[in-house]
Amino acid sequence: MLDFTYHRPASVADAAKIVGEIEDAKLMAGGMTLIPTMKQRLASPSDIVDLGRIPELKGIRRDGADLVIGAMTRHADVASSALVREAIPALASLAGQIGDPAVRHRGTIGGSISNADPAADYPAGVVGLDAVVETNQRQIAADDFFTGLFDTALEPGEIVTGVRFRAPDAANYQKLRHPASGYAVVGVMVARFGSNIRVAITGAGPSVFRAMEMEAALSAKFAVESLAGVSIDAADLLSDMHASADYRAHVVGVLAKRAVAAIS
Amino acid sequence: MNVTLTVNGQAISRDVEPRMLLAEFLRDELRLTGTHVGCDTTQCGCCIVHLDGEAVKSCTLFAVQADGSKVTTIEGLAGTDGALHPVQAAFREHHGLQCGFCTPGMVMMGADIVRRIPGADDETVRHELEGNICRCTGYQGIVEAIVDAAAQARS
Hints:
Radius of gyration of chain B: 15 Å
Oligomer: heterodimer
CATH class of the domain at 170-263 in chain A: Alpha Beta
Strand content of chain A: 25-35%
Shape of chain A: globular
CATH superfamily of the largest domain in chain B: Beta-grasp domain
Number of domains of chain B: 2
Shape of chain B: globular
Helix content of chain A: 25-40%
CATH class of the largest domain in chain B: Alpha Beta
CATH topology of the domain at 170-263 in chain A: Enolase-like, domain 1
CATH architecture of the largest domain in chain B: Roll
Structural class of chain B: alpha+beta
Helix content of chain B: 25-40%
Strand content of chain B: 5-15%
Distance between the termini of chain B: 46 Å
CATH architecture of the domain at 170-263 in chain A: 2-Layer Sandwich
Number of helices of chain B: 5
Number of strands of chain B: 5
CATH topology of the largest domain in chain B: Ubiquitin-like (UB roll)
Radius of gyration of chain A: 18 Å
CATH superfamily of the domain at 170-263 in chain A: CO dehydrogenase flavoprotein, C-terminal domain
Number of strands of chain A: 14
């Protein structure tokens, strides 16, 4: 790994100032992706801006009917949070399925969504639950946040400060976990907000996406049988050494049915 | 860059390159070679130490990130009087090792599991060990040891 200059700002404003002034500076949250990437020299930033000591980015709070999770809140904290478990148990469950316990002691929600790995779990939670990503500059609807493979709507130097969730009537996350990496080969979040149903898929495509046909079928009638005959087009999905696109398309259907069954 | 931290109860201060991993700091700077580096890719868990009381993979953490923290390694898990930690004792009792390479990480993760989930059953322990790999496939004794220690922690 090439060496770098290490910064440890105490506020979001200070962090933004550093990344604004140094072109090649990289923000680091938990480092669970960035450090392995740097070891392989797939990234060699001149400067690392460690967000780990910024108190305003940590913690989970209620704001009216919403739940706001600070960007630097770790997966272990979300998984064990009484607030999250009560308001959105599916989100606590999702966080508890990321990686392994040691990874969950470091990895954060802000880092996960900013990295936008196609096989990460949180994108399905954020999109499926119709969350709003809060940055130091603006609010971004989840549907507009994830723009492609490892790509988001974030501008250079823009810092995710938190994610704002509203509690659904019911939600469930189902995942086919890669046995070695722990990443989602396929992950499906189904959420019900009144008659509005959202189905978000991670792991299967180059970026998280919503299964619109499934949503329409479930909005008409929220039942497992509504998904019969509704399939996902494998042409848009990923094929790799772990799973073919056809297999992933099949698994999306299986997991969506399991998620619906769990909350209907 | 200076890093000042507490390792196994001892105050330590060193100048390190920012890129130095905590695992390298422990092994190369402090000669605490009980912390092993197996995969170096955050998967095998051989490098697990406790950072402020929680299990983390020290191959995926810069030493400078641990500045001001308390680190416990396998060398510091037993009591100062030499009494084994309950998880260490259970590993001995249940023969929870074969070649021993993964053992420091298994024991440190085992202690973390027992702390978080007293009374953890077999299925829970196997799930919690997803980030620890034993190339000898000696999981049976490892799981039995942690389940036993977890049962003791509850009683």
